[in-house]
Amino acid sequence: MNDLLLPENLTTKRLDINEKSCQEQNRKILAARDVMEILSGKWKIQILAVLMYKGNMRFMDLLRNVHGIGAKMLSKELHDLEINQLLTRTVLPTKPITVDYAITPYGKTLRPVINTLVSWGLTHRKTIMQQD
Amino acid sequence: MNDLLLPENLTTKRLDINEKSCQEQNRKILAARDVMEILSGKWKIQILAVLMYKGNMRFMDLLRNVHGIGAKMLSKELHDLEINQLLTRTVLPTKPITVDYAITPYGKTLRPVINTLVSWGLTHRKTIMQQD
DNA sequence: GCTATTAGTTTCCTCAAGGAAACTGGTTTC
DNA sequence: GAAACCAGTTTCCTTGAGGAAACTAATAGC
């Protein structure tokens, strides 16, 4: 019938020789996007780092320890992190009510991530300082 | 003269017993902030991951490989990354001009950071999928 | 001369991030 | 009953992140 069909189909597109490894790369790139969706922004990593390095804290403690953050932002970010099951919010029956924020076991799996981030950051500071 | 001055000064503030470790914690928290300033946002990590996992690329290649990004954003993000010395921009004297983007040796020190991020992201996907 | 490709830039737009300050509501202390 | 502390919420505002589409400029092939 139509013998022109075949050659044209074969020449238009170059086949991906290494499709399997390409899929794996794409999965990694997607994973990178996922993490940044959860951790991106000015405050989340800082809040996690404070809780991770200084231990559980109440709302007012966090407000004082996460330098520069305001009550509204803190409230919102804590909520986000709670939804992503990275920390828990526990209301304590104290005289003036207090709320304890703590990193969950799942949140603690972020420790290596934060640590790698932090150690790169510490080196980066030095690198930049030396140049200027 | 005024013997009321001393007692009041001594009782107002509690001293920080462990000031040295506290300073170190604060340095870490600052470092975390630094890194996020450089890598935060929707695209930077994705661009770095693409270049890291797929190798050098030209502008148009990146436009096709970083899914969803537009020319303006790509241009701006590449510029930012170049300023932070994480990648280089090389104009090649080809017929229609091409520009090669490559991760610098310094940018390559981000590899462990990206890898940790990615491996947490991959696990996170599984964790979330299982629940819903 | 028309179209295509590369590497952007420019313009105009929207929506979300983030911030300051005032306010709520309950409790304790003086 | 006034002041203070905790844990927020609400309101109003500004800035910046990000996006779509059109445009520039150079070159090559048809």
**Main beta-sheet annotation of chain A:** 3 strands, antiparallel
Largest interface: A-B, 39 and 39 residues
Span between termini of chain A? 72 Å
Oligomer: homodimer
Question: Main sheet of chain A: which strands, in order across?
Answer: 1-3-2
- Series of H and E elements of chain A: HHHEHHEEHH
Tell me, what is the CATH class of the domain at 43-132 in chain A?
Mainly Alpha
How many helical elements of chain A? 7
Number of strands of chain A: 3
The whole-angstrom Rg of chain A is 24 Å
Net shape of chain A = globular
The H-level CATH homologous superfamily of the domain at 43-132 in chain A, spelled out, is Winged helix-like DNA-binding domain superfamily/Winged helix DNA-binding domain
Beta-strand residue percentage of chain A: 5-15%
In round numbers, the mean pLDDT of chain A is: 85
Helix content of chain A: 55-70%
Class by SSE composition of chain A: mainly alpha
Can you offer a commentary on this structure?
- 2 copies of one chain form a homodimer.
- In chain A, a hairpin with a 5-residue loop joins strand 2 (87-92) and strand 3.
- Chain A has a domain at 43-132: Arc Repressor Mutant, subunit A (Orthogonal Bundle), CATH 1.10.10.
- With 132 residues, the first copy, chain A, is mainly alpha-helical.
- The first copy, chain A, is 64% helix and 11% strand.
- The first copy, chain A, has 7 helices and 3 strands.
- Chain A is globular, with a radius of gyration of 24 Å.
- In chain A, strands 1-3-2 form a 3-stranded antiparallel β-sheet.
- Residues 1-17 of chain A have low confidence and may be disordered.
- Chains A and B meet through helix 2, helix 3 and helix 7 of A and helix 2, helix 3 and helix 7 of B.
- The structure holds a DNA duplex (30 and 30 nucleotides).
